Amino acid sequence: MTTPSSSPVDEGTTPGRHGLGPRAAAVLVFGSSAAVLVVEIVALRLLAPYLGLTLETSTMVIGIALTAIALGSWLGGRLADQVDPRRLVGPSLGVSGAVVALTPAVLRTTAEWAPALLLLIAALTILVPGALLSAVTPIATKLRLTNLAETGTVVGRLSGVGTVGAIVGTVLTGFVLVSRLPVSGILIGLGTLLVLGSAVVEWRTRGWRGASALALVVVVGGLATAVAPGGCDAETRYHCVRVVADPDRDSGRTLVLDGVRHSYVDMEDPTFLKFTYVRAIASVIDSAFPAGEPLDAHHLGGGGLTIPRYLAATRPGTRSLVSEIDSGVVRIDRDRLGLVPDTGVDVRAEDGRLGLRRLEPDSRDLVVGDAFGGVSVPWHLTTVEAMTDVRRVLDEDGVYVVNLIDYGELAFARAEVATLQTTFEHVALLGDPVDIGVDPTAGAEGGNLVLLASDRPVDLRSVQESLDTRQTGWKIATGDDLASWVGDAPALTDDFAPVDQLFQPYRSPSGR
Fold first, then answer.
1. pLDDT of amino acid 98
2. Rounded to an integer, what distance in angstroms lies between the CA atom of residue 316 and that of residue 334?
3. Helices first, then strands: H and E counts in the chain
4. What's the confidence (pLDDT) of residue 45?
5. Among 113, 170, 253, 338, which residue's Cβ finds the most Cβ atoms within 10 Å?
6. In a 3-state reduction of DSSP, which class is residue 474?
7. Strand ranges across the sheet with 252-257
8. In the prediction, which pLDDT does 214 show?
9. How confident is the model over 160-212, as pLDDT tens digits?
10. In what order do the strands lie in the sheet with 426-431?
């Protein structure tokens, strides 16, 4: 004797009024799982201008996405057992699509007008659509369970389809969408697809009314994104890029990447150096090599190519090879910042560490480090192994000069000095006197610091004179003073480089 059940699962039945065909179920699960990963990856790009592209930001976004998946799977399965599952699919797709389409406008507006709420709003814009989309898999599974004898097959198949969808969403976003579309376009497009999917489901059950209202939300999201603050001149694979004209200098332009000023370029006078750290790097180069002597230089990070342009102008015949990971920034250099061919500057769209590996030993007079992900040097360019590669490509009189940023206790900067000291015979630190320990009467504030490393002595007196002439206000620490400043800071290695934990990206509120 059997007991009647109100569940749509009855052994031996076939998909009918309560069921769902295998293809439809696969499409729903595949698409919703892919959409979750698209939202996760694009959220990282959308938040980078405001939270930085750090390990902590990535961990937070991944954690929220996983929470959404777990919550959606649990609630979706529970609701599917309590109400007709057919009534859940359309709203899950439609509401998630509306939220996704509104996300760019909401996040950028919050970041500009209510930054204290940014983390909360960011979490909700990932959690809500992620949970709703993740609920589709258990709902579709419930609708497909029309034969108890095939429970394992149905659950396993849809689980596999969902995983494949997540993989496709990840690969498609990372390798295709981000390189071809702005992040706002990706999210509005995805929201549109989700609402269209919802419309199809709703049409088969309750007509077009609910889907029409959600479609209106998508339109509003697109219009709001167009007028929301925080827009970009261009969105590349890695950055939201803006080029800002200098109101005090007609030919001056500032390259802003993810809200951070990365380079200042005078398109008519490449010898004009606005940023203090750039003047410090120029002081090191001018003091380390005879005036006007052409150099073979390699640059880790390009940005606006300020130093390569300076070398081309002051040392005709210099050959500068630049490893700039973002090809979009290179296009901005050519289209908006006046980079012209045949200046001795060769820019390659490549990772800096990989670019170093391709260089011949003893092939460079100078290596300049000015690569940043957000406001932090990418960790794999900070280690003993990376510095060993820098030393390999430098000739015996070669010089390595690198720009760093750190605040607070300057733990990352101290560790990087310790790292260089394991590789080079001579290391010097240039910076504000209060930051490098030269002025013991004031606490460290932090900001830009420049490190000089070589296996031959550089005339530091000449460097200091150049720093003074350029009105940087910076001093130099070396020898015992530098050793005392470094203290017991650890050297960084490929096996242990907690740069994101050592690094403090912003000045402490208690700083002066």
1. 87
2. 20
3. 18, 12
4. 83
5. 253
6. coil
7. 234-235, 240-245, 252-257, 260-266
8. 56
9. 999 999 999 999 998 889 878 888 889 989 998 998 888 888 776 655 555 55
10. 345-349, 319-324, 296-300, 364-369, 394-407, 446-454, 426-431, 475-477
Task: State the residue for tokens 């208690």.
Answer: 510
Rounded to the nearest 10°, the torsion over CA 192, 196, 202, 203 is 140
Chain segment 421-451, per-residue pLDDT in tens: 999 999 999 999 999 877 665 667 789 999 9
pTM, rounded to two decimals: 0.81
Write down the pLDDT at residue 183.
85
Residue where the block lists tokens 């960011």: 122
Number of Cβ within 10 Å of residue 340's Cβ equals 9
User: How many Cα neighbours within 13 Å face the side chain of 251?
Assistant: 11
Dihedral sign, Cα of residue 283, residue 289, residue 295, residue 298: negative
CA–CA separation, 283 and 320 (whole Å):
18
In contact, 253 and 264? CB cutoff 8 Å: yes
Q: Coil, helix or strand for 61?
A: helix
If DSSP states are collapsed to H, E and C, what string results for 406-467? EECCCHHHHHHHHHHHCCCCEEEEEECCCCCCCCCCCCCCEEEEEEEEECCCCCHHHHHHHH
Q: At 302, phi and psi to the nearest 5?
A: -115, -55
Task: Give, in order, the Cα–Cα distances in Å from 478 to each of 180, 387, 419, 429, 452.
Answer: 47, 19, 15, 6, 10
Ramachandran quadrant class, 63 (left: phi over 0; alpha: psi -120 to 50; beta: rest): alpha
Which token pair is 104? 């760019």
Tokens of 190: 């995805």
Which pair of structure tokens corresponds to residue 115?
């930054």
The two three-digit tokens of residue 76, written as one number: 């979706």
Contact between 192 and 101 under an 8 Å Cβ cutoff? The reply is yes
Residue 52 backbone class (left: φ over 0; alpha: ψ -120 to 50; beta: rest): left
Alpha-carbon distance 317 to 156, whole Å? 65
The residues, ordered by sequence, that sit 6+ positions from 477 with a Cβ below 8 Å of its Cβ are: 428, 429, 430, 431, 436, 437, 438, 485
The rounded distance, in Å, linking the Cα atoms of 230 and 17 is 49
Burial 441-467 (b: 16+ CB within 10 A, else e): eeebebbbbbbbbbbeebebeebbebb
